[in-house]
Design a protein that fits this description.
By secondary structure, this protein is mainly α. Helix content is 81%, strand content 0%. It is built from 16 helices and no strands. The radius of gyration is 21 Å and the shape is globular.
Length: 416
């Protein structure tokens, strides 16, 4: 009973903190472009594209670098102190995000995003907490709680952002940043007063490296795993490219729709809702009944179709077609990513599976860094260019998934 209560508290803590992340994400590239103008940078220049790309990627870069360090520290001092420090950091840096919007300071915005990424890297410690508090049999359900917190946070965070905005037009002001800080403060208080320590003497270490080269060698030595890792990198890069330029596509003067700030938040809330429904209600039901290779291929094709529809929606400036395209694109991604991870798991030696899955997670993290760095500068060339790049990357990824699905086998089958 105590374990269930702890899991519920960690779920609430992660969910509330991710609400804050969901509030600022849709507005971040818009703020970045506007503040770059304040420095005299031309709105359509390559420099502003690279600046916004770095701003979008800075959070993921810090998570990639610091998640292993937080994990090692939590092995020494416990999960609870690390989670509390991370949440306190979120409060400070989301508040700083609000201050940056008051002063229209691009440099403060960078500091706020870098700090939030550093603080948010403690999500790996939340996973370690669940591993401490569950048995092997119940661990998948416990880990699913974090997945649910992510989905709900990305759905309801933009809705909170919608209500934090003073109006649909004009400068959105510091409200979203301060609202994110307030929500993180609630999560911090919850962790301080309700979250017990989970680390017990003799618990398994969460020690990780930034990139496990030995596990990468193991992965590449396993038939079809290398192809699947490359497919995952291409597909996640394509989605991160699309995700980081969407706000500009629907809001920016170079874009096709000229939405209000509130409409931008509602658009991202729609994406989170579709992702939650499809992953939780559809993918979960068909998983185990249909081969992962077929599900991954289906997801790839659906996402490619969605990106093509999105390019058509941008060309015609059709909001109806836009929302249809977003639903199709996100549904494809919802099928693709869990299927690829499951496929990599099934084809790995159980003795090396943890390391190989860690490599897959690192590859995905690197893709989320690369996506905005490539996509946002290309948006400055023309708003449709990132969509065509994403379509091309997804097509190549789909071909790799098809080839890997036909040539590889589950580890047990290949050993027999």
């Amino acid at each position: 009973m105590a374990a269930k209560a702890s899991l519920f508290v960690i779920f609430l803590t992660v969910f509330i903190d991710l609400l804050g992340f969901g509030i600022v994400l849709p507005l971040l590239p818009i703020y970045g472009k506007e503040f770059a103008r304040q420095l005299g940078v031309a709105a359509d220049s390559a420099q502003v594209g690279l600046t916004i790309g770095l701003l979008m990627s800075s959070f993921s870069i810090m998570q990639f670098l610091f998640a292993p360090l937080w994990g090692r520290l939590s092995d020494r001092v416990g999960r609870r102190p690390v989670l509390i420090v991370g949440l306190a950091g979120s409060v400070v840096f989301y508040a700083l995000f609000g201050v940056a919007t008051v002063y229209k300071s691009l440099w403060l915005l960078f500091v706020a995003r870098i700090g939030a990424g550093l603080a948010g890297a403690t999500i790996s410690t939340a996973h370690a907490y669940i591993a401490d508090a569950t048995t092997l049999e119940n661990r998948p359900k416990g880990m699913a709680l974090v997945g649910a917190a992510f989905g709900l946070g990305f759905t309801f965070g933009p809705l909170f952002g919608y209500f934090a905005l003073p109006s649909g037009q004009g400068d959105p002001g510091p409200g979203p940043g301060y609202a994110a800080a307030a929500l993180s403060a609630v999560a911090l208080l919850l962790a301080i007063f309700k979250l017990p320590e989970s680390l017990q003497p003799g618990s398994n270490s969460t020690h990780k490296k930034w990139f496990d080269w030995a596990s990468l060698r193991d992965a590449l030595a396993t038939p079809s795993i290398g192809l699947l890792l490359l497919a995952s990198f291409l597909c996640v890069t394509a989605f991160a490219n699309f995700e980081s330029t969407l706000s500009l596509l629907v809001k920016d003067e170079q874009g096709a729709f000229h939405y209000s700030f509130q409409d931008v938040c509602l658009t991202f809330a729609f994406i989170g809702l579709v992702l939650t429904i499809v992953q939780g209600g559809v993918v979960r039901r068909v998983s185990g009944k249909v081969a992962e290779s077929k599900l991954a291929m289906f997801g790839s094709v659906v996402e490619i179709g969605g990106l093509l529809l999105l390019a058509l929606a941008a060309q015609q400036s059709s909001s109806t077609l836009l929302y249809l395209a977003l639903a199709v694109t996100v549904s494809g991604f919802a099928f693709l990513t869990p299927s690829l991870n499951s496929l990599i798991s099934r084809r790995s030696d159980p003795a090396k599976q943890g390391g190989i899955l860690g490599v897959a997670q690192s590859v995905s993290s690197l893709a989320r860094i690369v996506g905005p760095l490539v996509g946002v500068p290309l948006f400055q060339v023309h708003p449709s260019v990132p969509l065509w790049l994403a379509t091309g990357l997804m097509t190549l990824g789909a071909l790799l998934v098809l080839f890997a699905g036909r040539t590889g086998r589950d580890f047990a089958s290949s050993a027999s």
